[in-house]
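User: What would this chain look like folded?
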Amino acid sequence: MNLTCVKFISYPVLGKAMMLFQNFACMNMQLQDLHHIASQFKSRANLSPVLFIGHGNPMNAVWDNDFTRMLAALGRRIEKPNAVLVISAHWETVGTYVSVSQNPRTIHDFGGFPDELYEFNYPSAGHPGLARSLIEMVSLTDVKEDKQMGLDHGAWTVLKYIWPDGSVPVFEMSMDYTKTPLFHFQLAGQLKELRKKGVLILCSGNIVHNVSMMNFKDIDAKPYDWNLEFDANVKKQIDGRDINALINYTGEGARLAVPTNEHYLPLIYSMGMLYGDEPISHIYEGYQFASLSMRSVQIG
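Assistant: Here's the prediction, encoded as structure tokens.
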């Protein structure tokens, strides 16, 4: 007998019995349909992770080393998200902007490097819809659309290892360099709802970043003592979730480790995305050129 989900009309007793049977059959079919529909989508019961990646020298984009191998392994380990929001040291603005390009260009925002870096293009699409939903989430400041911004090297030199095929849409949000670290932390708190939408947050910078003191001749040069000390202190503060200390970094070591804060602020954003007691992992620890910390952290 072929039952359809329509109202059943018959004699009172027989009709009531048939109606109950038919309603049960309809409910069963509807549940099966819902299960089939739900199976077409990835489960988002868990929050998408937040990554703070110490991206270092642009040449990491073409080097095979333990740092880049860690990024490749990360791509095999984590669930592919619906999209990636990048907060990078290399997009600073007056005011806050979000990129809404459908096809973001690869930006080669550096000079004096081999041709192979300038020839590389990361093929990811953008995600204007999620970018505009970010705007709606934020009340702390007026986030504006940017239709021209592509992917700076803080984004693509990392993502090329995690998802080499560019199969995950990517959009960026700028950092307002006129604002305090506390502002950036508070803004991050208004963005973390994106994690419930399957958006992975990639915060790309370096905890220690002093270009003026880099030993460009030796990537494995012994790290300066102030580099080791500041990096170790920040690790303790991350593990202790000591937001006040992370925001109010001071001292001679801090002055050398963070001469300008554009590479440090992405760490502040990552900590602002934290929910409660979710796990924090140090997925990479290392140094390059004596004055860079490559420490990388995963939240969630």
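The chain has two domains: 1-41, 50-299. If you want, I can go into more detail on any region.
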